[in-house]
Protein: Spore coat protein A
Amino acid sequence: MAIAQAMPGMKRLQAPQSALTPLRTLALAPFVDALPLPEIVRNTGLPVTLTMREIRAKVHRDVPATRMWSYGPAAMAPLVETRARQPLTIRWVNNLPAKHFLPIDYSLHGSGHDVPEVRAAVHLHGAKTASKDDGYPEDWFVPGQSRTCHYPMDQEATALWFHDHAMGINRLNTYAGLFGMLLVRDEVEDALQLPSGAYEVPLILYDRDFLADGELLYDVSGDPAKPWIPEFSADGILVNGKIRPYLEVEPRIYRFRVVNVANSRFFQLSLSDGQAFWQIGCDQGLLAAPVAQHSVVLGCAERADLLVDFSGLAGKTTHLRTGAFDIVQFRVKGQAAVAHKPVPRVLRSIARTPESEAVTTRTITLHDYKDDVDRSMVMLLNRKHWHEPTTEFPKLHTAEIWEFVNLTDDTHPMHLHLVRFQILDRRPFDTTAYLMEKTLRFTGQAEAPAAHEMGWKDVVQCPPGLVTRIIVRFEGYAGRYLYHCHILEHEANDMMRPFEVVV
Ligand SMILES: [Cu+2]
Structure:
């Protein structure tokens, strides 16, 4: 959603799902838990098994253990690490209970009383994957079943992440805890000798609300027949499974692999001491060169690869913050055990795809239909629901321009499966004229993407009142895929559409 959301503490109108007292997460003592690091599972060529299960884990020293779902025994799923072009096989096992513990909306598409309550589909976000292994929303499987997926990993070094994508329910499954990170390595990255081992730290960011007894709280609309809410952001900010943890660091450069796995929240990241950091990568890998940043906004599902230099802060503390709210405390030790290498000047060559290569331009309009008290009822792409026949048939090995015409008052992080793309520009237009006359009247100049958006992307922030254009080459596989807003509440109702790559 909006950047304003980066600051917790907003009042919400929805009633809690239970009469129990909500936990005042903002009143919890900050920085009392060490930042957990996920177990690393390396791709050896043998199949990796990741099992979904219900666990209990502590999100904070002073909060009783919370029931959640995970792809492993801890709140943080194992971090899978693989080389590029080293085929990876993952057997996803569904050992979840048969009953869901979060408020299902049976009125949503594919989520009726005619299907089992607990369904799972796993999507490896950002992976170039055959359609059958991509975790199609309707290809869900139930407790007691499993799916074996093959990932050729024919792509460049980056941070991907896996999460649930089951039709009508993935916002609740992800909220319950079904997400994890996957790192792809390659020789270009190796040659840069970036901070590694203990000096490379995954930061998985999300937000949750809790009841006083520690149980997860997910808001509902107040209408028992339609509990869906258009957006959900919570006061409790978690990093790697803990509310506002701390990390001891040495006075040297660290590499942080950041992913926003929140349902709706955007994070506006900066350091509390005002220091700049280097952004060296975005969704689909390294940028051409490091970009000095004082702050970066991560929409849902976006990734940032950051280098932070603590060497001027020996013996002090600083914080990673979102907006003005500190979410991780860095406690800088007096001395570094291993000196760091300087930040490379050049990272990876990235050829811009020329617009002339596009064989067509597709216009995708973004709509938010509201009731008479301005509450969202349904959100659509090109005024179409998920279940309507496919309308986009890009041809394999061709490039297309997709322009997202945002007619809503929200920023939508749009994601396409299978592909990586480049952002061309964003341009303001007259939304009223568009709605009345269906003509695109621009009201200003097109703006090129910021330097940190000039790398390969798989999510693009589409702000309100702008036409956001991307250029995308459909490579890899023919077959059915999908594109959707990555605000999970929007995606569920019904900002998600299929596309089919044809030969
Ligand atoms: Cu959206």
Q: What stands out?
A: Residues 81 and 171 are 26 Å apart (CA to CA). The helical segments are 170-176, 187-192, 431-437, 488-492. DSSP finds four helices and 31 strands in the chain.
